[in-house]
């Protein structure tokens, strides 16, 4: 048999998979390894989905997405970010940000084009670049700089082939955010080197110290930016697979070309539920953010009591403590913590080489589970000596 | 303050140290705040939700609609307060609509409750009419779902 595409060899099958399978198959584990809200979708939004089915809304929609949803997205982006996107041609409804990220890469890249990725970051960025025949170029960050990239570090990685930069803030896995000023510095680089910026702002509503700054709202960035966002995290709608991309007409039109021949459209029930989320979901979203904020503080305090130094996360729902004090590497730490205390965390290197020495703990779990997990981690650390 | 109230409303037994961590203030500050809230009556009381059925103690609940004949110089307060004094009465609300007071009564048996309404409520001078609805099954109380819900079905790991 002839081999499958060479390109896939460039995407390593995660070595950690076996460990994850073990976690998935072990009952009674407290898992801090989950990258999604523990809330179920608010009932009024679920009802909108149910009603969609009851009303027989089971057809395709426009490839762009329902006009009413695009209108609501356009309004909400205007209101939250102060950027105008025309619902006709500048907003594309996708099956989650994952799809939007994939087609954004395919639209931007020709073989050999380089894309700057700031690590630690969400696991899909690099594979999506590679699948689009591009080459990821990594800018590592450090906890001493709050996991923020420096201008020098980014500039040092730019070559003639650099086409784009992916930003993922608030960040999974570190919880880092970038201030307006820091984003402006990146905007300057984008201008200077004529780069596209793909800004994955899926956690934009989950910030705990001040409001998130939308990258495309910065001076001159609207044309360069592909803004990606969705409903999964703000409205606890991960399984609905619904997101969107906003950008300049040419880019979104090109993304639409791929979308219409591959996904065709996002599921109509999810689109109708998303309409309800944008119309009436504000209170539920605020309530969830308040709750995450409490859990965030509780977990950071708990980790520190356990002797794990922890960067104070300012967005998303993850902590990214250093496990240096344990004397173990991240994988050993995660495996032993799982085997000895039945607490699951994700080794930091899953999110990039510079994540070594850290683990990701999600606080999208109940207060009771956080309390118990922190007790077990403290015991684990004490027993290590 | 709202943060602390929110936490206590969900779980009155949340340790003060934990509340302090969650709201990002010192234990002393939170202790003082809770004391103040108690003194001001903003925190009215701490109680426990009990599944009495599981504990082997069955209760019968009934919702009683009460229509009242107001007399000159007498408001609903007088009657409502008289009704509220009975320990069998779990809640009393003045409501808008086709009747006036909505009262929840708890008793050991159906007979208990029926007798109580007949003997103690219906006989009150201004009570014109009562309609008794016996409760058959509880689904949600005090904002808490009391039936067993299926888990969310989240995977134990996702990135």
UniProtKB/TrEMBL annotation, chain A:
<comment type="subunit">
    <text>Homodimer.</text>
</comment>
<keyword id="KW-0808">Transferase</keyword>
<keyword id="KW-0032">Aminotransferase</keyword>
<dbReference type="InterPro" id="IPR015424">
    <property type="entry name" value="PyrdxlP-dep_Trfase"/>
</dbReference>
<keyword id="KW-0663">Pyridoxal phosphate</keyword>
<feature type="domain" description="Aminotransferase class I/classII large">
    <location>
        <begin position="28"/>
        <end position="377"/>
    </location>
</feature>
<dbReference type="GO" id="GO:0030170">
    <property type="term" value="F:pyridoxal phosphate binding"/>
</dbReference>
<dbReference type="InterPro" id="IPR050596">
    <property type="entry name" value="AspAT/PAT-like"/>
</dbReference>
<dbReference type="InterPro" id="IPR015421">
    <property type="entry name" value="PyrdxlP-dep_Trfase_major"/>
</dbReference>
<dbReference type="Pfam" id="PF00155">
    <property type="entry name" value="Aminotran_1_2"/>
</dbReference>
<dbReference type="GO" id="GO:0008483">
    <property type="term" value="F:transaminase activity"/>
</dbReference>
<dbReference type="InterPro" id="IPR004838">
    <property type="entry name" value="NHTrfase_class1_PyrdxlP-BS"/>
</dbReference>
<comment type="similarity">
    <text>Belongs to the class-I pyridoxal-phosphate-dependent aminotransferase family.</text>
</comment>
<dbReference type="InterPro" id="IPR015422">
    <property type="entry name" value="PyrdxlP-dep_Trfase_small"/>
</dbReference>
<protein>
    <recommendedName>
        <fullName>Aminotransferase</fullName>
        <ecNumber>2.6.1.-</ecNumber>
    </recommendedName>
</protein>
<dbReference type="GO" id="GO:0006520">
    <property type="term" value="P:amino acid metabolic process"/>
</dbReference>
<dbReference type="InterPro" id="IPR004839">
    <property type="entry name" value="Aminotransferase_I/II_large"/>
</dbReference>
From TrEMBL, chain B:
<dbReference type="Pfam" id="PF13412">
    <property type="entry name" value="HTH_24"/>
</dbReference>
<dbReference type="InterPro" id="IPR011008">
    <property type="entry name" value="Dimeric_a/b-barrel"/>
</dbReference>
<dbReference type="InterPro" id="IPR000485">
    <property type="entry name" value="AsnC-type_HTH_dom"/>
</dbReference>
<dbReference type="InterPro" id="IPR050684">
    <property type="entry name" value="HTH-Siroheme_Decarb"/>
</dbReference>
<dbReference type="InterPro" id="IPR036388">
    <property type="entry name" value="WH-like_DNA-bd_sf"/>
</dbReference>
<keyword id="KW-0238">DNA-binding</keyword>
<keyword id="KW-0805">Transcription regulation</keyword>
<dbReference type="InterPro" id="IPR019887">
    <property type="entry name" value="Tscrpt_reg_AsnC/Lrp_C"/>
</dbReference>
<feature type="domain" description="HTH asnC-type">
    <location>
        <begin position="1"/>
        <end position="58"/>
    </location>
</feature>
<dbReference type="InterPro" id="IPR036390">
    <property type="entry name" value="WH_DNA-bd_sf"/>
</dbReference>
<dbReference type="InterPro" id="IPR019888">
    <property type="entry name" value="Tscrpt_reg_AsnC-like"/>
</dbReference>
<dbReference type="Pfam" id="PF01037">
    <property type="entry name" value="AsnC_trans_reg"/>
</dbReference>
<keyword id="KW-0804">Transcription</keyword>
<dbReference type="GO" id="GO:0043565">
    <property type="term" value="F:sequence-specific DNA binding"/>
</dbReference>
<protein>
    <submittedName>
        <fullName>AsnC family transcriptional regulator</fullName>
    </submittedName>
</protein>
């Amino acid at each position: 048999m002839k081999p499958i595409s060479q390109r896939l060899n460039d995407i390593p099958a995660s070595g950690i998979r076996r460990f994850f399978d073990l976690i998935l198959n072990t009952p009674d584990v407290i898992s801090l390894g989950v990258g999604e809200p523990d809330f179920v979708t608010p009932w009024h939004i679920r009802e909108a989905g149910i009603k969609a089915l009851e009303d027989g809304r089971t057809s395709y929609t426009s490839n762009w997405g329902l006009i009413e949803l695009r209108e609501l997205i356009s309004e909400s982006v205007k209101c939250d970010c102060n950027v105008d996107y025309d619902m006709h041609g500048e907003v594309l409804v996708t099956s989650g940000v994952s799809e939007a990220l994939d087609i954004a890469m395919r639209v931007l890249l020709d073989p050999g084009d380089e894309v700057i990725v700031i690590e630690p970051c969400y696991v899909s960025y690099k594979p999506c670049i590679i699948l689009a025949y591009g080459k990821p170029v990594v800018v590592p960050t450090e906890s001493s700089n709050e996991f923020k990239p420096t201008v020098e570090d980014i500039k040092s990685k730019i070559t003639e082939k650099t086409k784009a930069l992916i930003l993922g803030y608030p960040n999974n896995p570190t919880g880092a955010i970038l201030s307006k000023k820091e984003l402006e510095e990146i905007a300057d680089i984008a201008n200077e080197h004529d780069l596209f910026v793909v800004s994955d702002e899926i956690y934009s509503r989950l910030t705990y110290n001040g409001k998130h700054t939308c990258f495309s709202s910065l001076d001159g960035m609207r044309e360069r930016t592909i803004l990606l966002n969705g409903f999964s995290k703000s409205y606890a709608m991960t399984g609905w697979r619904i997101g969107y991309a906003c950008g300049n007409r040419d880019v979104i039109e090109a993304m639409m070309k791929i979308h219409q021949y591959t996904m065709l459209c996002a599921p109509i029930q999810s689109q109708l539920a998303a309409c309800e989320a944008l119309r009436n979901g504000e209170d539920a979203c605020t309530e969830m953010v308040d709750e995450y904020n409490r859990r965030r503080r509780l977990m950071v305090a708990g980790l520190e009591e356990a002797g794990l130094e922890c960067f104070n996360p300012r967005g998303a729902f993850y902590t990214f403590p250093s496990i240096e004090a344990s004397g173990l590497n991240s994988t050993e730490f995660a495996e032993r913590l799982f085997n000895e205390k039945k607490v699951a965390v994700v080794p930091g290197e899953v999110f990039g080489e510079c994540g070594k020495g850290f683990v990701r703990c999600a606080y999208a779990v109940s207060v009771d589970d956080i309390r118990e997990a922190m007790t077990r981690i403290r015991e684990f650390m004490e027993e290590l000596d | 303050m709202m943060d602390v109230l929110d936490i206590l409303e969900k779980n009155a037994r949340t340790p003060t140290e934990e509340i302090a961590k969650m709201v990002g203030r010192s234990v002393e500050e939170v202790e003082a705040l809770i004391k103040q809230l108690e003194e001001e009556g903003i925190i009215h009381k701490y109680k426990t939700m009990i599944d009495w059925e599981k504990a082997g103690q069955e209760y019968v609940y009934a919702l009683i609609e009460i229509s009242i004949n107001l007399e000159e110089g007498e408001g609903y307060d007088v009657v409502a307060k008289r009704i509220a004094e009975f320990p069998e009465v779990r809640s009393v609300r003045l409501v808008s609509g086709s009747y006036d007071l909505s009262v929840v009564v708890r008793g050991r048996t159906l007979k208990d409750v029926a007798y109580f309404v007949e003997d103690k409520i219906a006989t009150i001078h201004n009570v014109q009419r009562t309609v008794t609805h016996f409760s058959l099954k509880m689904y949600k109380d005090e904002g808490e779902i009391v039936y067993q819900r299926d888990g969310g079905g989240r995977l134990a790991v996702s990135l």
